[in-house]
Amino acid sequence: MIRKVQRIVFLSLLAVIWSIQGSFGCTNFIISKGATIDGSTMITYAADSHTLYGELYYQPAQDFPAGSLRDIYEWDTGKFLGRIPQLAHTNSVVGNMNEFQVSIGETTFGGREVLFKQSGAIMDYGSLIYVALQRAKTAREAIEVMTNLVEKYGYASEGESFSISDPNEVWILEMIGKGEGEKGAVWVAQRIPDGYISGHANQARITTFPMNDPANCLFAKDVISFAREKGWFDGKNTEFSFSDIYAPVDFSGARFSDARVFAGFNKVYSGMKQYEEYALGNVKHGGENKFPSNRMPLWVKPDKKLTVQDVMGMMRDHYEGTALDMTKDIGAGPFKLPYRWRPLTFKVDSASYVNERAISTQQTGFSFVAQSRSWLPNPIGGILWFGVDDTYSTCYVPMYCGITQIPECFKVGNGDLLTFSETSAFWAFNVVSNFAYLRYDAMIPDVLKVQKNLEDKFVAYTPSVDMAAQSLWNSGKKAETLQFLTDYSVNQANGMTIEWKKLAQFLFVKFMDGNIKKEKNGVFERTETGMPQNPDQPGYSDWWKKVIVDGTGDHLKMLGEPSH
């Protein structure tokens, strides 16, 4: 009975976590084995919401008696949807990675509104993710679990793109329900070719797909016939485009969503310039083709093989160096702030305008890079590089998938969005980022310096930690291995949080009152008598001064000469 109560509490907490994310707020990249320098696979995920509190949840492996049922709660509302049979044994899950190094992320693309509601459906997108992680040992098994569940119990969500990985394969699965009076979903899953990368960000990405290649493409048997029945498609099967039929791209889909995929690709692939106009929202239709003619490809081959830090870098972007660069227009203010406070659109004189939606955004609750490594035992091979708050200024710390305890700084219930906690990483990182937003171009270098020092240390330590853990594992000390990995992960995360609190104090002292105090290597300079050196007062840039004068005319103009 105690276990059942604990499980209900856990599921309820997760339901709250997912319900507050909202739709259209996430970004994923998918990195194949052949595209990485060490042969690992990776997926990324940023969970973005203005009401999401960043935590790392954990579900241990469990055994259940025959006939047990699993309660399913809708992730967006916490509403009870129904029950499905429970397995005799479930996998342990740390965040979005299970003990077999299988990871799943998602982004909501919505799609045709008529397909959203399905009365009696039990499986929503969030439940699909965590049930699959508890049941699957490979990415293919996860796809099978997810698609079988919606076929049997119905699909209770809008259109979703899922990133699914294991140590050898990476897939994108796109799914949308069949609407009222129907049951289940239509879907397509494609394996990302070895050596390539993919991504999705709240816009369906799969267009045409091979129909006789089950090693690399799986799909619902009625994915095309269902569209024909609805009158949405009447062409040849080979011309069928999942995205263009079930979730057509428009200005918003390109500018707010696919533009983020463009930006991430642009950081590692030099051939993205040709898609910049599309990223700006200029969706073109060529000739008689009713589908857009200038869409980005589903996958690209990076210019070089990627490290885990390269992939972290893909998650840190404000469109720098592109036509959407958020540091270049007047909205960045005098300190080149690459963020725009919401709402996402605004009107002036009846015309509508946009605030860019970048990968790095202020409202991120948590993000991760899930790395799976086939040459190591599963508990050691899987690392969830986990961070909270804004991806640009977060620090990704390694959480091995074999851990059996969550660090205090990431624990569910250690504070919430309305309750400040001194031991919470989410609050420590938000204090730093929100202070840095005030004078961004001056402060962000200090933040990135600490970030780099810590992440470089974590990456440098990884081979030694792997070796020590593998030595324990090979000698038959499996419990000791898991405890070693747990102690290491917990210590690094809690230590990182302490360092971030020190960074907050340093930034406050250095930048208070609009001054910039003099310091060298983190030590503030004093006079011979121990007084602070006179601080720098850099003021504003010349271009911003001109903006002020143009906007105020002679209102601020001095009359006569200054008296001192």
From TrEMBL:
GO terms for molecular function: cysteine-type exopeptidase activity; dipeptidase activity. Its EC number is 3.4.-.-. One of its GO terms (biological process) is proteolysis. Keywords: Dipeptidase, Hydrolase, Protease. It holds the Pfam family Peptidase_C69. It catalyses: an L-aminoacyl-L-amino acid + H2O = 2 an L-alpha-amino acid. It is an enzyme of class 3 (hydrolase). It comes from the Bacteria. The keyword Protease applies. Belongs to the peptidase C69 family. This is Dipeptidase.
